[in-house]
Amino acid sequence: MLEALFQYEFLQNAFIVGILIGFIAPLLGVFIVVRRLSLIADALSHVTLAGIAASLLVQKKFLTFATLNPIYIGMAFSVVGSLFIEKLRTVYKHYQELAIPIILSGGIGLSVIFISLADGFNTDLFSYLFGSVSAVSTTDVWTISIIFFIVLTVIFLFYKEWFILSFDEEYAQASGVKVKSLHFVFIVLVALVIAASMRIVGILLVSSLMTLPVAASIRIAKGFKQALWLSVIFGELAVIVGLFLSYYLNLAPGGTIVLLAVCILIGAIMWKKWKRG
Amino acid sequence: MDDILRVENVSFRYDDEDVLQHINFHIPKGAFVGLVGPNGSGKSTLLKCILRLLKPQTGQIFLFGTPIEQFKDWHKIGFVSQKANSFNTGFPATVYEVVASGLTGKLGLFRRLNKRDEKAVYEAIDAVGMGPFIRRNIGELSGGQQQRVFIARAIVSQPEFLILDEPTVGVDVHHVQSFYDMLERLNKQHHMTLLLVTHDIGTITEKVTHVACLNKHLHFHGSVQQFAQLKTEDLASFYGHHLHLLAHDHA
Question: Where is the signal peptide (chain B) (predicted)?
C-alpha cells in the first residue's frame, strides 16, 4: 500500500485527513465525554447530514453550484444545530438531554425531505453516510487542516478554562471564568469537527470517533492530560490501521475504523481488570 | 472599609416563593462566621447571590467595599461547595490538576502556571494533608479526602475570604472535627476571613467568632458570645417547625 500511497493522490488525501481527524476528534471528545454530552455529537452529525443533503440537492438543481463542496453547507448546518441545542438546553433547564432527540430527529427529518426532493439516494450521499477513502478532495484537505489548527490553538489557549468548566461548572462561574462564551466556542468547534470528520468515517459513525477512544482512555488514564494523550493515540491508531485495512480488504473505512476503536476499548477494559487482578 | 462582605436589604424569590427577605448583614475582616439555618432556609441561595451565581431581585451586595456588579477580584474569594452536588466522580483528573485549577481565576486568560504557581499548588495540597495522594485520581479518594482537595483548590490562590457551603456533608464523623480544626487554623494563622454555611449549630460554636441565623429572614446576627446567651426558646422559634427535620438529619 505504501507504493499506492505515493502513487495516488486520493489515498494521500484520505490519509492526511484521517490523521488530522484522528487527532482532533478524540481530543475534543475528552471534553465532550467528561461533560456527559456524548450524544450531542450524534445529534449534530444528523444535522450535518441535512446540510449535505441540501448541498447535493442544490448541486443537482442549479448547475452554477455544481462544484460547491458539500462540506461547507454541512458545517453551516452543524453550527446552526449546535446553537439550537444550546438554546433548547436553556429552555428546558431540567431536561437538558431533551435537546438532543429534538435536534436529532429534526436533522433526519430535514435530510429525508432534501433527499426526496433530489429524487432519491445517489452514491455521493452514500459515501457521506458511511465514509469513503476515494471521495476526499484537495479542498477537503485544506478545509480540514484549517479546522485542525483552529481546534489546537483554542485548546492550547483555553486549556485551563475548559478544564475547570468541564470539571465543575459552578466553581468555574464562581471564579469569574466566562462560562457562557467558553461553552459557545466549545460547541461551535464540536460542530465544525463533526462536519470535518464525516468525510472519512461517515455521518452515522462520526460520534464514535469522539467517544470510543475517550471511553477507552478514561478507563486507564491517571489525570486529565494523560486522558487527552491516550485518547489521541487510540484515535490515531484506529484511523491509520483502519484506513490500511479498509484499502486492502476493500471495506468501508468508517466501519473498519469504528470496529478497531471498539477493539481498543475492549482491550482497555480488560487491561484494567487484569491490572486490578 | 473593613467589611469584607456587606449585604444590604437583599431579597430573592424563585417564581412565586420567597426565599430571602430583606437580609442585612456584614462580615468584618478576620471574622469566622457561621451561617446557620434549617434546610430550605435560603442559606445556599444567599451564598449563590454573594458569588454572583444568582441575582437578587432587590438589595445590594458589596465585596471588599465594591458593589458586586463591578467587583473584579474574584481570586480574592475562595469557594468550597457541597461536594456531592457538583462533580463527576469518574472525572479523570489528579489531585494536582484539581488543585491547580483553583488558580484559573487568578491567572486570567492565556497565562500558564509558572514555577511559583506550581509551588503554591504543592503547598496548598500539603496544608490539607493530601501530599501522599497528589498523583491519584480524584474519584479514587474517600469523601473526606475529596473535600480536603476542594479546600486546597479554594486556598491555593491565597484568597482573603473563604466561603464554604456545608462542606462536611458526606464526610465521615471522625474527620469532621479535624476538618473544623483546619478551618480554625486558616482563620487564626493565615488571617483568612471565613463564611461557613451549615445546618449544624452545635459543632461550630466552638470555632466561630460570629453567628448568623437565617430562615428566610435573618433572625440573629452577632458574636458567638451573644449567641451563647440566646435562650433555647429563641432558637426553637427560629427553627420553627423545621426542628424535627433537623433532628432527623442527624440520625
Answer: none
Nearest to A176 among B96, B105, B137 (CB): B105
Structural domains present in chain B: 1-20+43-72 (no CATH), 74-197 (3.40.50.300), 200-235 (no CATH)
Q: How many A-B residue pairs are in contact by the CB < 8 A criterion?
A: 87
Cβ atoms of B169 and B5 within 8 Å: the answer is no
Domains delineated in chain A: 2-276 (1.10.3470.10)
pLDDT of residue B84: 52
pLDDT tens for A183-232 read 889 989 999 998 888 887 888 788 889 999 999 999 999 999 999 999 99
- Rounded-to-integer distance, Cα B98 and Cα B151, Å: 11
Q: B137 and A222 in contact by Cβ < 8 A? A: yes
CA–CA dist B163, B67 (Å, integer): 18
A116 interfacial to chain B (CB closer than 8 Å) = no
Q: Residue B91: which of A167, A171, A176 has the nearest Cβ?
A: A167
Cβ neighbourhood burial of B82 (10 Å; 0-12, 13-18, 19+): middle
pLDDT digits (tens, 9 = 90+) for B112-158: 888 888 898 998 898 888 889 999 999 888 877 888 888 889 888 88
Record: contact A170-B137, CB cut-off 8 A: no
Beta-bridged to residue B11, according to DSSP, are: B58
Return the amino acid letter for A241: V
* Measured distance between the N- and C-terminal CA atoms of chain A, rounded to whole angstroms: 41
CB A232 within 8 A of CB A240: no
Task: Answer whether residue B250 shows pLDDT above 50.
Answer: no
Q: How confident is the model at residue B83 (pLDDT cuts 50, 70, 90)?
A: low
| pLDDT beyond 70 at B237 | no
Q: Answer with the residue of higher pLDDT: A243 or A176.
A: A243
Residue B18 has pLDDT above 50, yes or no: yes
- Per CB-CB distance under 8 Å, the chain A contacts of B68 are none
Chain A residues within 8 A of B96 when measuring between CB atoms = 223
Contact B87 A167 (CB under 8 A): yes
Q: Do A171 and B96 touch (CB under 8 A)?
A: no
Is the CB of residue A182 less than 8 Å away from at least one CB of chain B? Answer: no
A225 CB within 8 Å of a chain B CB: yes
Comparing alpha-carbon positions, the chain B residue that sits nearest to A170 is: B86
Half-sphere exposure at residue B89, Cβ-oriented, CA atoms within 13 angstroms: 11
